[in-house]
Description:
Chain A is mostly helical.
Amino acid sequence: MANELLFFMEVLVGGLLAGTMYSLVALGFVLIFKASATFNFSQGAMVFFSVLAFCGFMQDFNIPFVLAFILAAFLMVVVGLCTERLVLRPLMNASEDTVLMATIGLGYVLEGLAQAAWGVEVRRLDLGIGDFPVPWIADNLKLFISALDITAGLVAAIMIIGLFLLFKYTKIGLGLRAVADDAGAASSIGIPLKHIMLLVWSAAGVVALVAGMMWGARAGVQFALVDLALKALPVLIIGGFSSIPGAIIGGLIIGAVEKILEVYIGPFFGGAIEGWAPYVLAIFFLLYRPEGLFGEKIIRRV
Amino acid sequence: MSGNSVNILDIKNIEVMYDNVILALHDVSLKVPKGKVVALLGANGAGKSTTLKAVSTMLASERGKVTKGSIDYDGNLIEKQNPSQMVGLGMVQVLEGRRCFGHLTVEENIISGAYSRKLSKGDIDQELEKIYTYFLRLKERRKSQAAFTSGGEQQMIAVARAMMAKPKMLLLDEPTMGLAPQLVAEIFNIVKELNQKEGVSILLAEQNTNIALKNSDYGYIIETGKVMLEGTAESLLNNDKVKELYLGISKKGRKNFRDVLKEESLNKKIN
């Protein structure tokens, strides 16, 4: 009995921590969705592009870890700058659908650029954190929890607190929240949309880099990272497209639910339900709570 | 035109098109003297909002364009500027329908108006206190989420937010739309006060002809994208045609301005 409970706890905690990795990817989507009301289809490509560049700096040029991270983050700011100037500004007054299509195109450009610059083979990324159970926790709590999962959880927590402080207490954060509420009114009082766009795209780029590092360390830095973006979709549907806490909690829910279902219900379906169970959950949310758990409801006075 | 001319805004014969095909303004000319309140009157769809947006350059975001004529604001020819540059030049538009940032608090809404100015935290607090002297009601509600305030309060937020940009000129688009008469009076009192104490020039688009003219120095009446009549506020208030068409003081049924002019010319021919 005690062993069963322990096993359940292990599945749950492992799932929650794996879920923070989904949260990290979803976070990038939320940032851009808030500012431009567009689902950024190139987020997956940004993850791939940024982490491949990071690996390239480290492995091809022997640049030390910290410097390589700074360079890759800087590169993502440059990508944000180019995106604002070359894609978003010319489409400034276009419809949201047009911008959505543009992000799909941008995704292909980034994938192509990344592979042209750094090659197509799968790279190993060693962060110096093993993907194996932490002995101390295993000994004392009898839970087998991966060190990489714990790191991902901590990193996600730090990024969320950082972004929260940025949005709540800085001038540009206020600008972003204003644009998210009503872009037209924001521009009427002189909030320059291009600064806000640059901010969110750069922030989304850095978030993509961090998410890519975590995933790359687990699964190898490879093209398949692009498809990770798809896993963010049920996360966003559950959490709400415009909510940062929603992205986090949505990720945790998806992580935990898919692991628990896999272990306890999976055998009835012949296993491997991890892949599609989150989408089923997402469909239920679309039916009964389309704005997600934390999505901003449209507030109407009565 | 130079910055020291008597008019802060001088619109000459502008024509505005949406999507390159829909002609919204045919021929609008108007002047706003420095430090005065000018009312732009007319029914729905007459072109009031379009005129204001042509001035504030908000037209571009609705795929509209000034295709003829010129707009001179404080010595600057308005051509390729964007709204944030216009705010930098001291012109702020308060959009129709208030357009508050619903998820922000009242105070955050007002502070957001100072975005274009480089102010320290202390300066912002000082400005905020000054703004609150005009909008006492907002001070009580400073911590509420803007979406949950009343329509009148939201209109005050929109004006207070615009004032935080320290404008030389305000463009107000139907500030009293959907408000109770008492609130309409309160809003106009504030507008008058801002005009007199802060020296802000105001161009005001309104459907509420009577109260707008009572609070303005000069008025223009536009219909289907053309200026039909202009004059001092007093002369318009006493004008028979205006009385009949816009103030509802009439012997016969409702007519529009064109019909009245047609009737007049017919009468002239007969005589």
